[in-house]
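Notes from the 1:1 (GR / supervisor)

We went over the backlog. Supervisor wanted to see one worked example end to end before approving the batch request, so GR pasted a single chain during the call. The sequence is below; no edits were made to it. Supervisor asked that the structure be written out right there so they could see what the output format looks like.
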Amino acid sequence: MLIKDVMTKEVLTVKRDLPFTEACELFFKNKIHHLPVVDKNHKLVGMFTSNDALKGFVDNVFNSPMGQAMTIESNITVGDLMSDKLIWLNAYDDITQAVLLFKEFGIHAIAVMEKDEIIGILTSNDVMNTYQTVGV
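Structure output shown during the call:
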């Protein structure tokens, strides 16, 4: 089975200067856990995940002075917390390649690229849902 048959084609991307709190709102509103981060030319530069957001929140709260209100600093951005390790596949790669990458790197989403453009995203949920549907 090919990645193009399973991937999510409508990908919500963000820029690295997006405030972290706005990215968290996108996770909640769109019921997603991964946001590819692109530069001004729409070139993939990283991945921001709900786990990155949780880590940013926890680090911010626990590093705040005692007695201070527990709020998130507004100057924290997606770029401050994202992973810049770029892992991507082609739409015509076999889905088993994605499964191997999920396992090897402990990740749950892979950008799907064509030339230098992001054309989709494949998540571990996409893969599991596909296998559940086909009865594997």
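Supervisor's comment: Residues 46 and 85 are 6 Å apart (CA to CA).
Batch request approved.
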